[in-house]
């Protein structure tokens, strides 16, 4: 079933690559107008061009999502460019930042989602069938010796989504989360792992019941479903999309 988002206005953070890029493109192809932000200007501009080629209105801006004031400025500019906000997708992560992983993950994976929703609330409250979707991870559902800060932040985001859903329900705004498993895309963690530590790459792949890594487009499809009228009575949920990976954790 093809979903129609014509006339809808969508923000996707971390929208220049991976899941964010795939999500922004999917919304655009479904008729939405889209705003994306990311830290890197070069990849952001490339993705902006790809979205513009679809034919929708597109707004793009660099934004440090660890900066509360930068978030307010970005959301206001996005709402002005799009004429409002109907859907907010909080997708960015601090896992690839170069500083303290606890600070980075808590600031970007958790607090950015909180601040983005707060900044977007006045616009979402005026929309019809408004929706917030937080991109978390199956890492938030299990312990992680390798990336404890990332796992803890994603667990917090899962819990926050349930509270957010209760808070926003009186305003008729739905809030849900998507928990991807291991997603392979050019320049991403698993793409680097394939060449740098192929034995780890293969070991993880062998542990996925469906026998392969996920694609960003497969997560984008889940996000579009949750933002669509097909999920009109779904709120406060975390939908796992991982090829069965968490079942063997």
TrEMBL record:
**Signal peptide extent:** none
Q: Which domain of life is it from?
A: Bacteria
Alphabetized, the UniProt keywords read: Oxidoreductase
Q: Boundaries of each Ketoreductase domain copy?
A: 8-189
Family in the record: Belongs to the short-chain dehydrogenases/reductases (SDR) family.
Checking PANTHER family in the record gives: DEHYDROGENASES, SHORT CHAIN, OXIDOREDUCTASE UCPA
Q: What is this protein called?
A: SDR family oxidoreductase
Q: Which organism is it from?
A: Dongia rigui
């Amino acid at each position: 079933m093809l979903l129609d988002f014509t006339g809808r206005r969508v923000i996707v953070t971390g929208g220049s690559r991976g899941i964010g890029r795939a999500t922004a493109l999917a919304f655009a192809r479904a008729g939405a107008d889209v705003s994306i932000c990311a830290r890197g200007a070069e990849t952001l501009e490339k993705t902006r061009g790809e979205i513009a080629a679809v034919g929708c209105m597109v707004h793009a801006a660099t934004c440090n999502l660890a900066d509360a004031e930068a978030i307010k400025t970005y959301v206001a500019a996005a709402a002005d460019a799009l004429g409002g906000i109907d859907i907010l997708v909080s997708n960015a992560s601090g896992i690839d930042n170069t500083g303290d992983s606890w600070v980075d993950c808590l600031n970007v994976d958790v607090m950015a989602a909180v601040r983005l929703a707060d900044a977007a609330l006045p616009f979402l409250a005026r929309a019809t069938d408004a929706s917030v979707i937080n991109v978390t991870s199956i890492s938030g559902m299990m312990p992680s010796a390798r990336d404890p800060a990332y796992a803890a932040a994603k667990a917090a985001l899962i819990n926050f989504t349930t509270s957010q859903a209760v808070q926003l329900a009186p305003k008729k705004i739905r809030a849900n989360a998507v928990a991807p498993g291991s997603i392979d895309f050019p320049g991403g963690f698993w793409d680097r792992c394939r060449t740098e530590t192929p034995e780890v790459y293969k070991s993880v792949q062998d542990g996925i019941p469906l026998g392969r890594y996920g694609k960003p487009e497969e997560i984008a499809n889940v996000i579009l479903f949750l933002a669509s009228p097909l999920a009109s009575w779904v709120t406060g949920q975390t939908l796992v999309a991982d090829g069965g990976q968490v079942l063997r954790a």
